[in-house]
Amino acid sequence: MNRFDFYATIERYHTFQNPTSEEKLDLAMTYCGIRDGMRILDVGCGKGWLLTRLAKRFDILATGLEINRKFAAEARSLA
Q: Which of 15, 7, 19 is nearest to 69 (CA)?
């Protein structure tokens, strides 16, 4: 099993692939000063959790890059 399939398997029920909490990610968004009209690039976006959350709060142009095809497919389905 390659490593991408491995992570897609063990993290299939994870909402986001980040070793932190939703509250801490929300705080990071606040610190970044994100506002309407911004362009956001998330490199290693996983399943797109953070970009989806940002897009629900702000009128932004969001782009996610993900090397794991299974995670990228799930992110596209959320978009």
A: 7
CA distances from 74 to 30, 46, 69 (A): 26, 9, 9
Q: Consecutive sets of 10 residues in the chain, 79 residues long: mean pLDDT of each?
A: 77 69 85 95 91 93 94 89
Angle at 2 (CA atoms; ends 25, 47), nearest 5 degrees: 25
Measured from the Cβ of residue 61, the count of other Cβ atoms closer than 10 Å reads 10
State residue 55 phi and psi, 5-degree precision: -65, -25
Model-level pTM?
Answer: 0.72
CA dihedral 23, 24, 30, 31 (to 10 degrees): 170
CA-based nearest residue to 73, from 8, 19, 7: 8
